[in-house]
Amino acid sequence: MNIDAVTLTNRVAAIFQSAGSRAGEAECVARHLVEANLVGHDSHGVIRVPAYVDWLRSGKVLANQQLRVVSENGPVIVCDGGCGFGQVMGEAAMELATKQGKAHGLAIVALRNSGHLGRIGDWAVMAAEAGLVSLHFVNTNGGGILVAPFGGKERRLSANPIAAGVPVAGGRPIVLDISTCTIAEGKIKVAYNKGERVPDGCLLDANGQPTNDPVAFYANPPGAILPLGGHKGYALGVIVEVLAGALTGGGCSHPGVDRVVNNMLTIVADPAAFGPGEAFARDVRQFLEHVRTCPPAQEGGEILLPGEPEERTRAQRLAEGIPLDERTRSQLDDVAHSLGVAG
Ligand SMILES: NC(=O)c1ccc[n+]([C@@H]2O[C@H](COP(=O)([O-])OP(=O)(O)OC[C@H]3O[C@@H](n4cnc5c(N)ncnc54)[C@H](O)[C@@H]3O)[C@@H](O)[C@H]2O)c1
Q: Whose CA is nearest to atom 41 of ligand 1?
């Protein structure tokens, strides 16, 4: 049975409010989690609620924090999320980036010490809706070490997602939103909850042997996720650690950290600062048309643009509701019950 987005958002917001968030924060966290479900990234949707509430209870994420600007130096703004909810910190950081990007054509916002930022594509969409091109590099500073280096068998890097957004005149933005490993950890959790296996080539068990079994990944000693595309994804992951970790001041992945914080380096650029905005818009539109009209390799196939699968899933789930597996549903019910949230 599917659940509609508004009902789910209200329920999740009620959970966070009972757990200590003010109404605005609870709504913001709920809205972003449900948005991830709507666009089909269930790994970063409401499946996260039990962990977020645990983190609140144990002080690993702090309720009702505000983004603090640490320094401003030309186009560079450094901010600290104070271990507050990533959804709130992400929105606030993007508001700063957008304002600065619009005013000066370019902004680089370093967000350190934020709670989990969820689906990074949200931040690219936010910039694109303001007419800006954006790039986002995200790591954890050690609370989310999951990925083996190319050729290695133990975890050393975090999932290190990269997102990018491009506004498209008269259409939906192009949105790239990928981790630099073969599979996002949340997707392994979704498979674990459903009792399913993950695709070939994603995981190693603790002995460095390929496995499809999420249980082997979460075992003690644990398995590891493989980097995306062998050495290339590994190399990208290393660069993301440095940009998101060392450059923001939030830190690269180091052992011995038990709190999941995300750091994000965001670069936004206003196409109008580079030349006539219309020329940019026209070139992008023509290029997209050139790509989209490529004959499909297989009969009945089609060419999609980055961001399009999410747009389609969003339209479908807005109309038909969000499918939630039994385990995720009952975990949500358990958390709600433990906080005295009715329903
Ligand atoms: N907060 C964190 O620390 C963190 C860490 C890792 C991942 N994540 C999030 O996890 C989510 C999932 O990441 P992932 O690596 O599994 O992503 P994924 O492998 O599902 O790839 C998604 C990207 O590929 C594009 N895409 C998919 N199919 C396509 C097609 N047929 N044609 C064109 N483009 C297509 C999508 O539009 C999107 O940009 C993302 O939202 C990411 O931000 C967050």
A: 119
